[in-house]
Design goal:
The protein is an alpha+beta fold and 194 residues long. The protein has one domain: Aminopeptidase, CATH 3.40.630. Helices cover 18% and strands 26% of the residues. Strands 1, 2, 3, 4, 5, 6, 7, 8 and 9 form a nine-stranded mixed beta sheet that branches. The chain is globular.
């Protein structure tokens, strides 16, 4: 049976997508909990890097917020997806602007293409919009993330602190005017080791 993820951005993260306290459940998305660590922090066969180690480091960061660490569950409660926002900043010559970085976003291969990643992205965008940060930055496929309003960071004068194709570093404002006047280099949480 396919996933029943549905994004419902309404300004209320409880309603964004099957929030655990919502009466409008489709696919449960909730904050990550300690028992989830076993399912998330080992290196599954479909992992393509050090995602589990990165997640562990981010959870020990001084700026970690559990509200920005969410999981998606199947109908039987199996963990099928995970996404995490970490605090970051765009640093210019005389100013810095607070933003988030979305990394990682992971969906079990059996559930890819069924709306789980979309649901996680939408949930976190609504959740993040209630913070004082201006935007979400992501490194990824512009064909995928562009569907959610992410635009090349270069269009805003924002660069990565490492070599990356311009098209792959993207930003999305999460507050009105969130990227107006923003330019500089993206500074990741120290847990990224950059």
């Amino acid at each position: 049976m396919g996933a029943r993820c549905a994004a419902r951005p309404s300004g209320d993260p409880k309603r964004a997508v099957g929030h655990e306290n919502s009466t409008d459940l489709t696919q449960p998305i909730r904050r990550e909990r300690a028992p989830d660590h076993r399912g998330l922090c080992h290196r599954p066969p479909h992992a393509d890097g050090d995602e589990a180690a990165l997640v562990a480091r981010l959870r020990h960061s001084a700026t970690y917020r559990s509200a920005d660490d969410v999981v998606a569950l199947s109908d039987d409660g199996t963990l099928i997806g995970h996404a995490l926002l970490s605090q970051a900043a765009v640093v210019g010559p005389t100013h810095e602007w607070p933003v988030f970085v979305l990394a990682p976003l992971a969906v079990h291969p059996d559930w890819q293409g069924q709306g789980v990643g979309s649901a996680l992205l939408t949930y976190l965008a609504v959740q993040a919009g209630e913070d004082a940060r201006r935007a979400i930055a992501i490194l990824g496929d512009p064909g995928y993330y562009g569907r959610f309003g992410y635009q090349p960071a270069r269009d805003f004068g924002v660069t990565a602190p490492f070599a990356v194709p311009d098209a792959n570093l993207m930003l999305k404002a999460i507050v009105p005017g969130g990227l107006t006047g923003v330019s500089g280099t993206l500074r990741y949480d120290p847990a990224f080791g950059l």
